[in-house]
């Protein structure tokens, strides 16, 4: 019996040893350091920003992984999504996101927008099409148009344009940890490793050992 217990303990120990956390992050491969670092809203929290575009298929593919990670992330991590704007043609989707957010419909319809564009092949490129789409989902199309054209939404669009430049974005999806560390599935080569990198960067920030390069 004791021999069996010893063998079982040894097997468990081997399994634990064989599946460690990321041993060491590689600058330039797992992440890059933003210069200069960008300001964060709450210094008492660890901020993670997802920069995305509704028209980006890779952003659509990332949504289930984000959803799963949000269920298990540490409580001190504050996550938010920001639409990236690289060209003028992206602005309607940016307005769509901020309009849904302002109307309290973001949680309900954010992933539905991705599905409409990438699975149902719908063209949500102008206000009229967006109004027709949200109306079928219980949103007042007239109110939607008013918010879509509001000063508040326009201000947030301008903020997205400015952030896309100041964060030095070159593609989507991109995730930025605490205004300083940029990573993406394109860099890490997988969704799983991307969030492992984020978790390890957060742990290093938390312990005061954040990488300087």
Could you give a quick summary of the protein structure above?
By secondary structure, this protein is α+β, with helices and mostly antiparallel strands. The chain has one domain (26-207): 3-Layer(aba) Sandwich (Glutaredoxin).
Describe the structure.
The chain has a single domain (26-207), classed as Glutaredoxin, CATH 3.40.30. The protein has helices spanning 2-18, 57-72, 91-102, 106-118, 127-135, 141-148, 151-166, 185-188, 191-207; strands spanning 32-33, 46-52, 77-83, 174-177, 181-183. It is elongated and about 50 Å long. Helix 2 (57-72) packs antiparallel against helix 4, helix 3 (91-102) packs antiparallel against helix 4 and helix 5 (127-135) packs across helix 6 (141-148). A hairpin with a 3-residue loop joins strand 4 (174-177) and strand 5. It is built from nine helices and five strands; from the N terminus they run H-E-E-H-E-H-H-H-H-H-E-E-H-H. By secondary structure, the chain is of the alpha+beta class. The model is unreliable at 2-20 (pLDDT under 50).
Features:
9 helices; 5 strands; disordered N terminus
Name the strands of the widest sheet in spatial order.
1-5-4-2-3
pLDDT averaged residue by residue: 91
Detail the poorly predicted runs.
2-20
CATH class: Alpha Beta
Helix content: 40-55%
| Number of spatially distinct domains | 1
The largest β sheet comes out as: 5 strands, mixed
The CATH architecture category equals 3-Layer(aba) Sandwich
- The run of helices and strands is HEEHEHHHHHEEHH
Instruction: Determine the CATH superfamily.
Output: Glutaredoxin
End-to-end separation in angstroms reads: 52 Å
User: Compute the gyration radius: what is it?
Assistant: 21 Å
Number of strands: 5
> Approximately what portion of the residues adopt beta-strand conformation?
5-15%
Total count of helical runs of at least 4 residues:
9
Derived from helix and strand composition plus strand pairing, the structural class reads: alpha+beta
CATH topology: Glutaredoxin
């Amino acid at each position: 019996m004791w021999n069996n217990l010893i063998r079982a303990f040894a097997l468990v120990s081997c399994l634990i040893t064989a599946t460690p956390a990321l041993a060491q992050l590689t600058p330039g491969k797992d992440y890059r350091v933003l210069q200069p670092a960008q300001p964060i809203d709450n210094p008492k929290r660890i901020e993670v920003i997802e920069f995305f575009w509704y028209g980006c298929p890779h952003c659509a593919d990332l949504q289930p992984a984000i959803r799963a990670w949000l269920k298990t992330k540490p409580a001190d991590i504050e996550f938010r999504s920001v639409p990236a704007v690289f060209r003028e043609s992206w602005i309607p989707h940016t307005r769509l996101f901020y309009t849904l957010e302002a109307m309290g419909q973001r949680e309900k319809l954010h992933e539905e927008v991705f599905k409409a564009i990438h699975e149902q092949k719908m063209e949500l490129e102008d206000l009229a099409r967006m109004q027709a789409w949200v109306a079928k989902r219980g949103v007042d199309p007239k109110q939607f148009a008013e918010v879509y054209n509001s000063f508040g939404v326009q201000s947030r669009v301008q903020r997205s344009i400015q952030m896309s430049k100041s964060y030095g974005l070159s593609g989507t999806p991109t995730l930025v940890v605490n205004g300083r560390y940029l990573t993406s599935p394109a860099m890490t080569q997988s969704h799983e490793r991307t969030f492992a990198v984020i978790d390890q960067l957060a742990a290093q920030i938390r312990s005061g050992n954040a990488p300087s390069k």
